[in-house]
Amino acid sequence: MRENASNIPCSPTAARVPFPQIGLHSSLFSAVHRQSTWINFCVAWIVSALSYLLLLPFGEVNDLEPNPALCMTQAALVYGAPVVASYATLSLIVQLFINVYNHLREPGDPPKGLTIKIFWLLVCPWILYAIIIVDALEQGLLHMDKVQRGLAFCYVSTNVPGRISAGLTALALLVTVSLEVVVVVVLYRRWRLYRSLPVTKVPPLEMLVRVAAFTVFAFVAICLAGLLVTIRVDSYVDQLILAVMPVAAFLSLGINKDILSVWTQRKGQMIDPRKIAEEEDQGRGYHLPATA
């Protein structure tokens, strides 16, 4: 459906389960180290998922005509959800790009690597989120008769908030894919050149696969954004397709051996994530600052 055009990077059914778990593990286990943009990434996707569940606690999830104020509030949150999720993802990839660039610099490169204020990477997604919500609320107040219940959630049928949200989301994903392509190319060249040598700057194949996988999924998301913003799709098919996106983000950016280690046991004892990191450093001779 056209009102779903902005719902590119997240879906309530799939997104609400994995990200609270990995965020909780990162907070509770000191051995699981993640940077602030990664935590912000998880929080943004949790918030975006909860936006689609607003009718549930009020008992109006099956009501074809829910409370107008509640419906308008959910519509505003739904339009802001893909924006905060996509730009939080972009912030994570920007920091990953900077980490990779600075870590793989050659001796002859300038001594000072790329830097960026982490504060802006953290707050910019939420600033855009607030702007989209205010715009959607304004559209809803001006056109109360246009606030309607869709297949899964409320929306404003003027299409203005949806187009703005879809445009911003597509822009974020386009930049994200571009940076990811650069990261994949750089890591692959370094891996192919030095994979048989015991040097300290050879990226593991697992990292290449994960970044490349999310690049493919983000490209699919851009195609879906363009498709859903230009044509009318009124079925559950688009909801099913979009549900794949948070799963893709979870599998490619949300998990790693240190997190998996707190879920598994070896010989009845919990695996120490720090030992896994040490084994990887000794076995591969490579370590990248934990961003993803």
Automatic annotation (TrEMBL):
Stretches of the chain forming a coiled coil according to its record: none
Keywords of the record: Membrane, Transmembrane, Transmembrane helix
Membrane spanning residue stretches: 38-56, 76-98, 118-137, 166-188, 208-228, 240-260
Signal sequence, renumbered to the chain: none
The protein's name in its UniProt record: G-protein coupled receptors family 1 profile domain-containing protein
Presence of the UniProt keyword Membrane in the record: yes
